[in-house]
Amino acid sequence: MKANSKLVRMFKVLYMFFIFFIQIYWYKISNKPETEWEKLWGSIGKRFRKTLFELEGLLIKVGQIISTRADLLPGPLIREIEDLTDKVPPSDWSEIERILEKEWGSSHIEQLSIEKEAIASASIGEVYKGILQDGSKVAIKVQRPHINSIVQTDFRTLGIAIWFANYFVPLPKGFINLKVLFSELKQVIERELDFSKEKETLLYFQERFKDSDIVQIPQVYTDFCTSKVLVMEWVDGIKITDFSAVDQLNVTRKEMAQRLIKVFLPQWLEPGTFHADPHPGNILVSKEGRIILLDFGMSGEISKNDATAFQSLIESFLAKNYAKAVECLSRLGFLLPEADTRMIEKLLAEWMTFQPAQMTEMGLIAFKIELNDIIQALPIQVPTRFVFLGRSFVTIEGIVTHLAPEKEILDLGKPVFMEWLMSQGNKWSFVWQWLQSQPLFKAFHSVTEFLKTPEKLELMKETEQRRQFQFTIYENHKKQFFHLTLFGLTGIAAGIFVSHMLILKLSIALSAFSIVGYAIISYKLKKWMKYMHKKR
To answer: Which helix (H) or strand (E) segment is 53 a member of?
Structure first.
């Protein structure tokens, strides 16, 4: 990547963020109402989306990952970027050929006949079809030319923007931790850049599903694989969202939906690796009705403790033990300390008894919007370690809902979960969950919670008041220093204009003082926010 291209790319991204910062600051000091903020975030999302498509490459991948953080970023912004498609024009074959020659040498290239037109092209890799000397068809995934240079440039640019935002931009009330978000982006993309890690994930899933007759994982040709090239078995199948073709199979849509749940449920509930990007383009169906999983570049890990907690959470829902469900959510880190557990328990119970089939389509859309607003207002957060697990679940839920629209996802998933529970899980844990949901246990739980309520409410009230008071002090000091800086800069301009040295010197001193004061208060606020983030 040429130096001038890097500079142009950096300038466009930084200029975009600079405009965003100015707009946010102006809205903050102008005390704009909530409706105006909604419009601002929507316009920011549109401009962000337009710039991503203009610059292509890694930034589209960044936008896709950011769109999963609805818990950290405003809804109108998320809605503008949530359907970003990672498709970019393919590279010239000559550049791809040079990469293959460098990675393989002439001996390996002679063993393959490769079609020169890309089958698929994304921000990080391109896929080509090839045939080995023995007639085997293969898919060859090649890293895009100059992608490492683009990644370094984009990370450097994003790093500058996030540093500036941390120190100089008024943070929204939701306490966005931009450094955590940036670290998350960097970790995921750097992992995707190393194709040897994707190869290891592929081998892991082959071993995991080797005895399954409903799932197929492409074979890997390890001799041809490097950190920039991945060679896999070519598999033919139909897209799982091609419903007319799915209807021609010997498997009903309901059975296909349950097979999909059966493939992914163990990934979400058992310790180990899960497929984090199961969008319809990465899931095919064979003529025999087997589910074919592709593209393991984006994956996640579940620890043993988290897997146990998720199992207990689902058992709680099935047993209608919502008090235990709230306890599991708190254990997993989804509830903030000030959350009212009885209110969350009541909302879960109402949500589980809601019947979407009883509503019209327009009524259902209105309900979903209202539900999103309620969730945004609740003391709920999504821990960073679960973002890609949530992405995986929501994507599969969407596919299942479209496969069998007349069926509730819980009705489809319950028999699959019970089958898994009897074979892999702890069935006695489920029985205990059911017992805890019975009136006698619930009465005992209610009495103990009632006795603790006054103490909890007083502590929550005191903690929240202190937090809001301290945050307001920092924000007011920042605003005062910002206004002093503007006043000082105006004085400098006036001193130069009227050639008055005293005014000029005083204005320079005032500007320097206010800039230093602003930097000190920003640093203190940052340290306090970091402390509050850990506490939360």
So the answer is: helix 34-55
Question: What residues contact residue 314 under an 8 Å CB cut-off, 6+ apart?
Answer: 269, 417
Nearest-angstrom CA–CA distance, 237 and 291 = 9
Number of domains in the chain: 3
Domain boundary at 402, 420, 444, which? 444
pLDDT computed for residue 384 by the predictor: 66
SS (H, E, C) 324-386: HHHHHHHHHCCECCCCCHHHHHHHHHHHHHCCHHHCCHHHHHHHHHHHHHHHHHCCECCCHHH
Higher pLDDT, residue 85 or 18: 18
Tens-place pLDDT, residues 37-87: 888 988 988 888 888 878 866 677 777 777 766 656 777 887 887 766 666
The rounded radius of gyration (Å) of the Cα atoms in the chain is 27
Dihedral of CA 229/232/235/241: which sign?
negative
Q: Which has the minimum average pLDDT: 349-363, 383-397, 516-530?
A: 349-363
Distance in angstroms (rounded) separating the CA atoms of residues 447 and 443: 6
Task: State the pTM of this model.
Answer: 0.67
CA angle 221, 227, 231 (to 5 degrees): 25
Q: CB-based burial of residue 278 (10 Å sphere; 0-12 exposed, 13-18 middle, 19+ buried)?
A: buried
pLDDT digits over 22-40, tens only? Answer: 888 888 788 888 888 888 9
User: Are both 416 and 501 inside the same structural domain?
Assistant: no
| 3-state SS class at 528 | helix
pLDDT at 136 over 80: yes
Beta strand 272-275 with 125-132 is unpaired
Judged by DSSP in three states, 41 sits in: helix
**Which residues constitute the domain of residue 419?**
236-444
112 is a domain residue: no
